[in-house]
Amino acid sequence: MQFRLEKRPEPSRLMLYGTPVAAVVLTMFIGAIIFSLIGYDGIGAVREIFFTPLTNAFKWQDLGVKAAPLIIIGVGLSIAYRANVWNIGAEGQYIMGGLAAPWGALASHGAGGWWTLPAMMIAGVAGGAAYAAIPALLRTRLNVNEILTSLMLTYASVQLIYYLVRAPWKDPMGMGFPQTRRFASEALLPNIIPGTIVHAGVPIAIIVALVAWFIMTRSVFGYQMRVVGAAPHAARYGGFSENKTIWLALLVSGGLAGLAGMLEVAGPFQRMVPGFPTNYGFTAIIVAFLGRLNPLGVIFAGIVMAITFVGGEIAQTTIGLSNSATGVFQAMMLFFLLAGDILVRYRVRRVTPQVEARA
Amino acid sequence: MSLELTIAIIVTVVGASTPILIAALGELVVEKSGVLNLGVEGMMLVGAITGFVVAFTTGNHYLAILLAAAAGVATSMIFGFLTLSLSANQTATGLALTIFGTGFSALAGQGYSARPVTLLGPLFPAELATHPIWRVLFGYSALVYFSLAMVFAVWWFLKKSRAGLILRAVGENDLSAHSIGYSVIGVRYAAVAFGGAMAGIAGACFPLLLTPQWAERMTAGRGWIAVALVVFASWKPFRLLAGAYLFGLVMTMELYAKASGGPLSAIPAELWSAMPYLATVVVLVLISIRRDASTNAPACLGRPFLPSN
Amino acid sequence: MTLNRRSMLKAGVAAATLPLLGSKAFAQSEPLKVGFMLIGTVNDNGWNFGHAQGAKFMKEQLGDLVAEPTIVENVPEGPDCERVLRELAQSGHKLIFATSFGYGDYVIKVAEQFPDVTFEHATGYQRSANVATYNARFHEGRAVCGTIAGHMSQTGKAGYIGSFPIPEVVMGINAFVLAARKVNPDFTITPVYISTWNDPAKEADAARAMIDQGIDIIAQHTDGPAALQVAEERGIVGGFGQGADMSAFAPNAQLTSIIDHWGPHYVNSAQAVIDGTWETGDRWPGLKEGEVQIGPYGPKVPEDVVAAAEAVKNGQIDGSFNIFTGPINDHTGAEKVPAGVTLTDAELLSMDWYVEGVIPPA
After folding, report:
1. Which residue of A340, B225, C195, C296 is most buried, as measured by CB atoms within 10 A?
2. Which of residues 293 through 332 in chain A touch C, CB cutoff 8 A?
3. pTM exceeds 0.80, yes or no
4. ipTM metric
């Protein structure tokens, strides 16, 4: 069977909003069948992974906390990707933001004040942006592919954490375990809803997404990013500098990843540990696509991803579904989503092979 | 350093390098066709569990390698269908493929963990394979010689064969290749399948060549090293060979240095581990400074092929 | 803390003031729900496998008194584990075992929110009213292994693969060397830290690197059998199983193994919670209590060496022998522990120095 893709004159709005929903529904349906066939409680798995996190109000706080970093990083990436700048090293920028922030917190331990958190926030953004500046410099000066440099730098940054927590930053009271001391209270992110774990990073994530949406749709900057990404030639005629766009795209996405790193280390982690890199930077790439590179879409995509993470753990405790099964569910959902992407821009027509051959 | 120790180190380095060399050769061909598949790690894990299960149930190592390759191809076809037939984003699909491979292999491997297999023995007769000196050349299993043969095969294919020329044309300029009448999608499918087969075999190296057991995530990030290696080698098979052994040396020398307690052991372990990635960035920069067009990345790398109609 | 009416009342108040956290009431007649949180998978042949076996043992021993144990795998050491802990507590688990060091902060945090739930944290040091810590004296087993190594090594050199230089690992290395040097005063050991608990290919390569440089005995403090398999392949004198009997992987090379047997501890804790007699504290049983066991001796180990190993084992069981009794010199040769003095538990738990005979890593 051969397919032929016909470009739609305009992206289909129905498909734009319909395909993510269809992908999730399809995942539940096919997942339930497959997992039942191989001897698991397929229906139970779908219920626990996709519905329990939503129906159980106790889980909402977890969704918020898990989704926040994904949304912040995902928003930055969606801006970069709109401009055709392929920063896939957000994990590394997240790590550098997470390392830049406690650098100050540890140095000023016990001597901080109201200014500590804002200073950490600035350090985090700067750390992430500085790390993204390396691929930006190499791309604009030497035309080095940013996909490859940003990815390589990510792996180097993971080793930097290991080094810092093992040697110079090691907690003197930590029984020799590789981790920093706990930050002083003024360097910890406040909880905003008493009795829950919802920290200030959650509303920040929503604000970041809303501001980004506003800028991308209403400002010259946003227009520039979109034009350079969609039609680089036209953009050049219009007087938009491609290099400037690359710089902006990488600095914004890197800075937001760094912000997410700061919020994580000062919020849920409260100290730097070797387990700090939890793939938020990579998962956020998927979130960005899931959200159709639209900051508002990224909010929903971040929550959907968070549901599968939280739901996966519920499924482990309630029906004993193994951790690996959750990974398979997630991958399946992403496959369906990515597959559905094409329906937004194209119509799929079935054609006879003769027409297609050597066309 | 004594000759004996030198030989011993070489033997260990060759073992450690072989899976990344095999996986990177596959990815090199994929990237030459203009496709970036970041799912190498996932495909390797699927190959590792397949190779393990087949070796465990049948005891036939060559069948295990063959079926690991087949499993790699099957996994790569998910990527192929999404990115080539449906023009999905390659970066995101590759990452999703790694999530899939990690989860799937763990799921399939439940119940196989406390079970040993045997390593694939040396290819040559014992007199050569265990000879104190000659084992440096003849002491390896078929997988090692396969990886070396594939370096030549990939070089010949890309440089000398007509099919290789077409593949490179597709990777350099898909639209003109298309307009001459080549099936861009067809060529890329073949390249992705080859990459999958090689990643599957590379995965099988873990239980059959390195450590005869199954452990979840046992490839421990080496698929990503393979991706780095392709770039480090600037898409050239013989540089890839040198690079694989260099990376293997860096990964292994850390352990030899620590075990000896000598001066090299003062280098932090983390710096050793970061070296392959940092070196790759440096190489990328050097390539660009020289502006040697032939060493540069395939022009269409990572871009979907969408002939406008 | 005991589960009396007062603490139940406290839990009720806590639930009322923390509406989003919730806390299901539980009746004593229901079987106790016990949760286990693991850093890896139950299929790792080592650490996590040992805890899963312990959970199984608990269920077998206590029957209908406990529900089928809940095991959550692959929980990273970070905020994710906090969520899992809360999930377990909210879903009615009244006894929760957190089995990795990095869970510590979060166990304490969640335990505050669920005063009616009992938590136990393996290898940790932070405790509270409803959080106890527990570990096993693996170093006692290391002393037995070291005795065998001292007798059997021909080169007098052993290798030791560690994950991170934390006190628990350092303690094991020291116990091993001290025991070996009681047999062979020239015995030395080279520790190699590989910065990971589970990368079997790297463990195997580390074993190869050490064997190539002249060691003929290998020990490891990582989770899998990879190093033992290399010992088998290379035909060196041998090595030791860690966490579980690994003779299936190395029938000739495994001289013996240290087996984690968490089961009795899990039975005791569960029983205490059911009876309402559970109290916080630090539990650190070893060979004597059966929590650490010595597996079968391998075919290579001659009878006189078995006898020597058994003597060290039995001495530790009846209390007549302690591997950390002075005189002990540090790796520079300076006296660290005077004759007749025994290191205290607190000193062991913060051990960051190597004894004589260890070639310290940089």
Report:
1. B225
2. 309-310, 313-314, 316-318, 320, 322-323
3. yes
4. 0.87
